[in-house]
Design a protein that fits this description.
The structure is a homodimer.
Chain A lengths: L3 E4 L8 H12 L4 E5 L1 H4 L6 E3 L10 H7 L4 H10 L5 E4 L3 H12 L9 E6 L7 E4 L9 H19 L5 E5 L10 H10 L6 E6 L11 E3 L2 H26 L3 H21 L7 E4 L4 E4 L6 H16 L2 H10 L3
Helix pairs in contact in A: 1-10, 3-5, 4-5, 6-7, 6-11, 8-9
């Protein structure tokens, strides 16, 4: 297997946590190639590609890619395009990661717009795949049919769901509810090839087993992802503070650790390995900006799994299937 | 004070829990008038108005109001319009509650569209007022300026925030991020009279103290509200199950009850008293569909508080202020 190109300077905790995550992945047997400035990557003992520029978290994505041709993100995407890496992984600027992948790897033939697929935790069940989680702030109705097809392929490969149930995010279960955009998408999804459409779902369904894949435009999807993440973070923070408030509660918390810790862990965004950009000609994993070493290792493992299962081939076949 | 007109047959747990909630409110000194079918309301010992029809949870809102002129919702709204009640409260069909209020009470002069304002819990802080939480699935940019003005009045009266900070929901903090709709709203909010605009906020900000009021279109707002509610419900359910799983964890949970219960309680949607429809010529409280007696009592108390503080007068003044 070709190495996975890892943006060594992407993310709030780069480069230290990113490099530590890379080392752990290598120990697990996954080949990794660091991409970044020479002084960061050359003395790690890991394979590397030098890139002199960095696209920062605050930079505009597309502009950053056009202006910084020797940036770690652009070089990582080029490594995939040129057959020197099997996938790219970054915890850096999401917009620039997408733009690098799109502009350097290109779109899968027939795909109107790539979309970010984000797994949302569902306690006790496989995660719900939400897309588009933020690649396209404004969408055409037809794009969501492709999001449904691509999300179906991803849910099947990533979580082993044989016939993923696809729901359309709306503000009422009935086909008549929602914006005119959503009503049109609903109509298009009925009978869309390769899609097991189960109708509209609502915000309270995304963290449950109501659907395996939830499609929406990139604005609403990003809002859902961040609302859920923010809400969970707030409540887990308050619970942790409550557990630590007195000697008595700390003792009680020790008893509860075996039942609560797996839950807290499951709710950590970093456990999932991150989101994936579906629709480009290569595997591109978008890890959380706050990724720790463990999150980076998980993202690399996810990349490996997507490459091994040939997700890109599966997406090509799904999009090329006769309508 | 005129009685508060309570829809006796609205909500999943009506009429029993609704009537029990009414009794508790009366005991607290708030006058209540039940509205519903004679066999439901006549033997409660509480004042009542008979309405022979019921608009069900699955009925279309506006259609229900047009067709069922003797429904509890229409009669409750008419009681407010006719000066026989000071406010209306329902845990029933949200669309029909809005339509009844809008069609019978009318809009405040100058208001383009009424909006639902929903308080989102923020542990340790005053709730964030989110609007529009679902009245308008599609919005014009100018409407959101009025939502900001109305949300400001509500945040001030309900939570005592002297100068509420208003954020615009988007998918990035920068003014350049988001859909073209959001960019236009951002521009309009800069310098809008009566609005202390602090810029864009994101999904992870709604459950925090980042803003006092968050404005958005009714589609995104409804998605945020239900995502947060659903996510919290799922995680609290799992935590409760974990606490109850063994004799040891149950003992530990007892120690933790004093620190965890207030939190669980605070996160219950029913604690807030419900949402309010802002922009109509009267107080209209939309309680949660699953409201228990306690939730109904809280909704009635909220109605009373809004009437006492003359929220409608405050909204009139804010909307009429020179631009």
């Amino acid at each position: 297997m070709l190495p996975i190109a890892l943006d060594a300077v992407g993310g709030d905790r780069a480069p230290d946590e990113v490099i530590a995550g890379a080392r752990a992945a290598v120990e697990l047997g996954v080949p990794v190639m660091l991409v970044g400035p020479e002084h960061v990557v050359s003395e790690t003992g890991l394979p590397f590609v030098v890139a002199t520029e960095i696209i920062g978290m605050g930079d505009d994505g597309a502009q950053g890619v056009r202006r910084k041709k020797d940036s770690s993100l652009v070089r990582a995407a080029e490594a995939v395009r040129d057959g020197k890496a099997s996938a790219m992984v970054s915890a850096g600027n999401t917009g620039a990661t997408m733009a690098s992948a799109l502009l350097r790897m290109g779109r899968i033939r027939g795909v109107s717009r790539p979309a970010i697929a984000a797994p949302l935790p569902v306690p006790g069940e496989t995660p719900t795949v939400l897309l588009d989680a933020g690649a396209n702030a404004e969408c055409q109705p037809e794009w969501l049919v492709q999001f449904a097809q691509m999300g179906t392929v991803f849910s099947r490969q990533r979580f082993g769901v044989v016939k993923p149930r696809v729901g359309l995010l709306s503000i009422g279960e009935e086909a008549s509810k929602g914006s005119s955009f959503v009503k049109e998408v609903h109509h298009l999804l009925e009978g869309a090839p390769g899609v097991h459409f189960i109708g509209n779902v609502e915000g309270h369904d995304v963290a449950t087993d109501a659907a395996d894949v939830v499609v929406t435009d990139g604005f609403s999807g990003n809002v859902v992802l961040k609302t859920l993440e923010g809400g969970l973070e707030v409540i887990l923070g308050v619970i942790r503070a409550g557990l630590a408030s007195t000697p008595e509660t700390r003792s009680a918390a020790e008893v509860l650790a075996p039942v609560l810790e797996p839950l807290f862990d499951y709710m950590e965004p970093e456990t999932t390995g991150g989101a994936i950009l579906l629709g480009v000609e290569g595997v591109c994993i978008i890890a959380h900006g706050r990724s720790s070493a463990r999150a980076v290792t998980n993202a690399i493992s996810l990349a490996k799994e997507m490459v091994s299962g040939d997700i890109v081939g599966g997406l090509r076949a799904a999009i090329a299937a006769p309508a």
